[in-house]
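Budget justification note: compute hours in this period were largely spent on complex prediction jobs such as the one shown. Inputs:
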Amino acid sequence: MTLTVDVEHRLGAFRLKSAFEVGEGVTALFGRSGAGKTSIVNAIAGILRPDRGRIVFEGEVLFDSGRGIDVPTPRRRVGYVFQEGRLFPHLNVRQNLRYARLFSPEARRSVRFEHVVELLGLAHLLERRPGNLSGGEKQRVAIGRALLSDPRLLLFDEPLASLDSHRRNEILQYIELMRDEVKIPIIYVSHAVEEVVRLADTVVLLSAGQVTAVGTAEEIMGRPDLRPAAGTFEGGAVIDATVVGQDMEYDLAKLAFDGGTLTATNVDALIGEPVRVRIRARDVSIALKRPEAISIQNILEGTVRELSPERGGEVDVAIAVGGVVLRARVTRRAVDRLGLAPGLTVHALVKAVSLARAGSGPL
Amino acid sequence: MPLTPEEVEVLQLSLKVAVWSVLVSLPLAIGIAYLLARASFPGKSLFDAAVHLPLVLPPVVVGYFLLLAFGRSGPAGSLLNDWFGIVVMFKWTGAALAASVMGFPLMVRAIRLSFEMIDRKLEAAASTLGAGRLAVFATVTLPLALPGVITGMLLSFARGLGEFGATITFVSNIPGETRTLPLAIYTYTQVPSGDEPALRLSLIAVALSLAALFLSEVLVRRASRRVFGDDAHSRR
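Corresponding output:
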């Protein structure tokens, strides 16, 4: 599957001029609020008609201003989960879910009603009205409703924005489940690093209506030069790992990644399960020799790749550990005293308690 | 106090006229209310004013215009007669027509207001789920406007029940055909022995209006609960 977006649109003083092409899996449109993320998904859904441009999905032209093509929204078959859910207040949950079915011919249906109800845990809510649902429940119903319209593409516009952090994590788990169970490409709009890191295969970084960078979550989050566009996110590394052991006595998990193993607390996953962890740059210390008699559980040997000076006497040190690049945020004085320079072999120290499964930590 | 056969006749006729006037004008009122709430076109404010005209014109003037238009030789009247064989002059159908014209602005106003209150984002959501324009209107817009539609129907019904000036001008005061409740009361007040029957009919009118008000309140409440959730009606 390929989605090509190349649109221009002017809304007051705001100018959107974005072009990108994405493939399978979850694509995050990431950037600060006002970067044009929602305008782009609205254009993909056909709710917003761009001034100029082209949108092509799997070879089908959905919009082409030059050729005067503008496929109406109902015929685009794009499922849309809005920030505020937008459940129909005059229908109960069952009717909201069934609503999507009204317009999809039976032959086209790929997901069963019962399956969606089970997947999203909606069975006990079916007779309730949207007015009596919590924010998290509403979003689950909205996701189910979008799924049941048998979309070819799913759009999420900051679906967690109106939820507290506990609910966010819950809905994130459902979205992950959906991503893995129902193989529909997803465009996910967010300004929250944790969500993007946890869900996205591809990240499209947007800034002031323009595409700043396209890449994997690891690439985008690891690049300090993109930080101004990405907003307030803290530098760090994103690591794809697999749970290889659980220490029940101490409540620790052992994670294997391309470069060694990590010990972490609070990883709520089974052995063999893939997890994505985020290591913040300011949680990483550097030692020249392997330290002893220290509480740090993770000591990883690596090579300094590059040094990027930051504001206020801080320096971001990129350290290659096996196939991944960790980042350590240290003072300039530490860089000078240790004589840190590219090529130097160092030990990166990471506290086990600072390792957060991406998405479960504070946003 | 059992009703006399004459009172029953007046009551039945009045209800028939008012109910038909509401039913006939409802589809058009919904269409025009939607147009006024959503569309923008040149001359919209003029059109809006024209719709509201019966509200401010003396009813007798409206009746007279109806007479000109729907009389046997009037353009609309001869058309109705030629195509459908319908004659409205001096008939109860004419009384219903007069009532619907007089109640029309009230109905349009109430429905338009409820269209304007609808969150259009819900309609966008429906379109992403595959609903075309007509389906969106039928499944989202109209159901959400239901409280306003009911209110509009009641206002128009009440206006139709009380219609006097346009009716007497257009279709006269014919017992059993066009003599509705207000016309019957008026007739009794014109004769020396009419005090008691006029009072009785007036009391019937009061009871009827109260019943209609009560019914619509129940219906609007129920519809609002459906549309906005449990305690929304008290909040509005």
